[in-house]
Design brief:
heterodimer; A: Rossmann fold; Rossmann fold; B: ABC transporter involved in vitamin B12 uptake, BtuC; 3% strand; globular
Chain lengths: 385, 303
């Protein structure tokens, strides 16, 4: 037993010392001597939100390739260091520490899911490395510090947009809310939806929770059905939303479901199928937008990946582009100066619309509402901030 | 009342699937006295086998149809039976004489190996896949508002048939008798001329086939499958097996149904945040009151 403890102790000491030596290495140390700019990215390439990570990574990679084709930034090529966080809590902290201390990146791009961005943000802040989240809409993400930015709108906006849309356009009175109790994103959207909907004279008929990863929602939906709502707000992610729509129809629920940008994935319709017809969600952009910036991006993306880019891909693209623009403005890759340039971004013409970074380092921009029609996402309307 | 009955139906459907998985745990435990943690992953492989088989079977049989669906399920059960036997041969048999803890840790290793190999893009990929419709789907909504769909009926029917078939194999056949003998005393069984290796292989094959059937039924009801889909059902089925009395076949089935119904009722009437907490809480209470599990004492059907 004693030998055992001794071995564990020495292994632990070794692990800690390795870890500390990793941390002590000044960030970006290798930069001065190299002729590339290293940009870090962490994304959920595998796991339950894999299509989000893969999409945003494709967009980010396309932006990096575009920038390099145009002679890079500050006369240097960009090098993207991507780490997979497996859609798991705990992983973002590990991979972001690795990117900063071992790879020596000058900025971090990521993540889509708010819970995982929240995990990485304090680490970037501590190391004074600017971090740009492409699509985390929870307000808390950028509250982690003045080095944390995002290129998407935030939950209050998205929740309010859906509250107005369901109240004014769909004329709903009595709505049930089905929230993913494990996700900061879902809780945030539900909170602001409920506030907006009630303030506008609507009533919340029922509130139910589930946990991401659940497959069976029949209990929650049966309880919702008993409350007899005229619509169900489901601010979740696509895997669960598809199954929820399917099981709702099986239980004989015919009222529309609606939610936020967590719905947008090519995997949604294959799972939910016909059960999703006539449901609505808000998101960041629509590939059906006819503006030249969007059409150009769609064309390039299709040429490279042979698929239509979704919102995550567009936001991934914008996150890298806005970072490059800030580096050019700052004239350096120094963390503090890039941070200042990012904070001063005004009317940046991104694929997902005109982006202005506000005082809280959030993007102020428009949202679009899509519906599902014959298995396709169809543009309904744009809502300005 | 309608709502309560609906919740009961929902819970029974979920519980039946858990029961099928739990049977595999309990059979292996009954014979080898160890928990095969890779069992939940066999469940996942069963669903994926069905996913890849469905288009192939559709070339010969109409799809969706009862016959086509059962064919997919049958082939997938056969594939998983072979996988289960291989896992036992490669990973567990060399450790037959090692301490139980070694085998247990190996089982966890096998489980993680399967999960993460399958997440590779060249195997299944990590992104959830949508499971094709293999059984015809009907919805039966009664006037009272109670709704039952054909998938749930298929779950009940298949579970019942497999349970009866298992009961027949264990109680009425020669190999079943050998399984019971091995469970009672492996050394004595070997001395009586029973080939323990074959019996153990057969047990793994049988358990894995049941897990595959459960995987297909699960995917039919919740048609989003991914390589990690077996983790939670596997854990809950393990709890169900312990709850019913590990090593006891009817106990495993009963445990599965209890866990399924409890979970559904908790999610429907209290909060789904507590569904697992209360389900596992019940396990702790039952184990405190009756450590051998609900039906743990009945030796006669121990496998």
């Amino acid at each position: 037993m004693k030998i055992w403890r001794g071995q564990i102790l020495s292994a632990a000491v070794l692990a800690v010392s390795l870890f500390l030596s990793g941390c002590n290495k000044p960030p970006g140390e290798s930069f001065a001597t190299s002729d590339v700019i290293k940009v870090g990215e962490f994304a959920s390439m595998t796991g339950s939100e894999a299509t989000f990570g893969q999409s945003s990574h494709q967009g980010t990679q396309l932006a990096i390739d575009d920038l390099n084709a145009a002679d890079g930034v500050l006369g240097k090529k960009l090098e993207l260091h991507m780490e997979d966080d497996q859609s798991q809590a705990g992983q973002p902290a590990t991979v972001v520490r690795k990117l900063i201390s071992s790879d020596g990146v000058v900025a971090i791009l990521g993540e889509v899911a708010s819970s995982r961005s929240l995990e990485a943000a304090p680490i970037c802040q501590e190391n004074k490395i600017p971090m740009i989240s492409p699509a985390s809409t929870n307000p808390k993400v950028t509250e982690a510090g003045d080095y944390i930015f995002r290129v998407c709108f935030i939950d209050p906006f998205q929740g309010t947009v859906m509250a107005n849309f369901s109240r004014k356009t769909l004329k709903l009175q009595n709505v049930a809310v089905l929230t993913d109790a494990k996700s900061d994103y879902s809780l945030g959207l539900a909170k602001f939806f409920k506030e907006g909907f009630v303030a506008d004279g609507g009533k919340i008929a029922a509130e139910q929770n589930y946990s991401s990863g659940d497959k069976d929602f029949s209990a929650e939906l049966t309880a919702i059905k008993a409350a007899n709502p005229d619509g169900i707000f489901v601010p979740g992610y696509y895997t669960e939303v598809g199954l929820i729509a399917l099981q709702a129809k099986q239980l004989g629920i015919t009222v529309p479901l609606f939610g936020g940008d967590g719905w947008e994935s090519s995997a949604l319709v294959p799972i939910g199928g016909a059960a999703l017809e006539g449901d609505y969600f808000s998101t960041h952009y629509s590939p059906q937008d006819t503006s030249p910036a969007v059409q150009n991006f769609v064309k390039e993306f299709k040429a490279k990946y042979n698929s239509t880019p979704d919102a995550m891909a567009a936001l991934g693209y914008d996150s890298a582009m806005i970072l490059a623009a800030a580096m050019k403005t700052a004239g350096t890759t120094d963390g503090a100066k890039v941070r200042d340039a990012l904070a001063a971004t005004k009317n940046f013409a991104g694929v997902t619309g005109k982006i202005t970074i506000d005082a809280n380092r959030n993007a102020s921009k428009a949202a679009v509402i899509l519906t599902i029609n014959n298995g396709q996402f169809q543009y309904v309307q744009t809502v300005q901030p | 009342m309608t709502e309560f009955l609906q919740q009961l139906i929902n819970g029974l459907a979920l519980g039946s699937i858990l029961a099928l998985i739990a049977l595999g745990y309990t059979m292996v435990y009954g014979i080898l006295r160890f928990i095969n943690f890779a069992h939940g992953d066999i469940f996942m492989l069963g669903a994926f086998a069905g996913f890849y088989l469905a288009p192939k079977v559709a070339m010969f049989l109409p799809m969706p149809s009862i016959g086509g669906g059962l064919a997919v399920m049958g082939i997938s059960m056969a594939i998983c039976a072979v996988v289960g036997i291989l896992i036992e041969k490669l990973a567990y048999r060399p450790l037959r004489r090692s301490p139980k803890l070694t085998v247990l840790i190996t089982a966890i290793g096998v489980s993680l190996l399967i999960e993460y190999t399958c997440q590779n893009d060249h195997v299944f990929g990590a992104a959830p896949k949508s499971f094709p419709t293999i059984f015809p789907e009907y919805h039966i909504t009664q006037l009272s508002g109670l709704s039952l769909n054909s998938n749930q009926i298929i779950v009940f029917a298949v579970t019942l048939i497999l349970l009866l078939a298992l009961r027949f194999i264990v109680l009425k056949t020669k190999i079943g008798m050998a399984m019971r003998a091995l469970s009672f005393n492996p050394e004595a069984a070997a001395l009586m001329g029973i080939n323990t290796d074959i019996v153990i292989s057969f047990t793994f094959g049988l358990g894995s086939a049941l897990a595959a059937a459960a995987g297909i039924l699960f995917a039919v009801n919740y048609p989003s499958i991914d390589p990690l889909m077996g983790v939670l059902p596997g854990l809950k089925a393990f709890v169900a097996a312990v709850l019913g009395g590990i090593g006891n076949l009817p106990g495993a089935a009963l445990g599965g149904v209890i866990i399924g119904v409890t979970e559904t009722l908790v999610a429907g009437y209290i909060s789904s945040t507590y569904r697992d907490a209360i389900a596992f809480g019940i396990l702790i209470i039952i184990l405190l009151v009756k450590p051998s599990g609900l039906l743990g004492k009945k030796e006669i059907e121990k496998v």
